[in-house]
From TrEMBL:
Ranges of residues in domain ABC transporter: 5-213
Superkingdom per UniProt: Bacteria
Keywords, comma-separated and alphabetical: ATP-binding, Nucleotide-binding
Organism: Belnapia mucosa
Protein name according to UniProt: ATP-binding cassette domain-containing protein
Keyword Nucleotide-binding: yes
Length: 213
């Protein structure tokens, strides 16, 4: 199994209409690749298919099992603490019942705190997600992906709802995680300027196909 992400011959239709046609791309470990394209071009669909969330034809291979997904709206449970939101990343290896009863293993709790520290949120574990800023919430979502131990991170417009300063900080964090943890990161971005500054390569999606450039 290769590390990183390899997509080949990906066909995807939604509502009976073709959205992606024969898409191929690769993201190497340590690399940040930006996915750009007009609204409705299929960026979200491609990321969701790569995460195994949409039925498709073609090949998707991701090192380390299921890729982690980070969404624009970070999909946190607002009533839960930052740490409990991060712990959701461990569900795949713990099963349902112990976590449902709040019985997280001590090692996973410690690992969740370490992931929070890694994304710059040391000490904020007990705080309710609803009481965090937008940038902090996005960091919690990234910490959850780290706890999941994914080798591939798919981020769907992770900075769209952030101010420019926070947007740059989050993209700088993603780039650091690619470099230092060897993550392969595919990130859809609306701002070409940010793609230019933070991505190693840029892909453009248009009319169901993906081009380098
Ligand atoms: N569940 C669905 N059923 C039918 N069509 C869908 C569905 N979800 C998305 N589509 C269509 O598929 C196409 C691709 O949508 P997608 O959300 O992937 O685009 P996008 O590039 O992420 O757009 P944006 O930049 O606006 O977020 C669009 O034409 C959209 O209308």
């Amino acid at each position: 199994m290769p590390r990183g992400l390899v997509v080949a011959g990906l066909d995807l239709a939604l509502g009976g209409r073709p959205v992606l046609r024969g898409v191929g791309l690769a993201v190497a470990p340590g690399e940040v690749v930006a996915l750009e394209g007009p609204s409705g071009a299929g960026k979200t669909s491609l990321l969701r298919a790569a995460a195994g969330l949409l039925p498709h034809r073609g090949t998707i291979r991701a090192g380390g099992g299921r890729p982690a997904l980070v969404f624009q709206q970070h999909a946190l449970a607002g009533r839960l603490s930052a740490r409990d939101n991060v712990l959701v990343g461990a569900l795949g290896r713990l099963g349902f019942w112990r976590p449902a009863l709040g019985l997280w293993p001590a090692a996973e709790r410690a690992a969740a705190e370490a992931c929070l520290a890694r994304v710059g949120l040391a000490g904020l574990g007990p705080r309710r997600a609803a009481h965090l800023s937008g940038g902090q919430r996005q960091r919690v979502a990234i910490a959850r992906a780290l706890l999941q131990r994914a080798q591939v991170l798919l981020a769907d417009e992770p900075v769209a709802s952030l101010d420019p300063q926070n947007a740059e900080a989050i993209l700088a964090l993603l780039r650091a995680l690619a470099r230092e943890e060897g993550l392969a990161i595919l990130v859809s971005l609306h701002q070409p300027e940010l793609a230019r500054r933070f991505a190693d390569r840029r892909l453009r999606i248009e009319e169901g196909q993906v081009w380098e450039g």
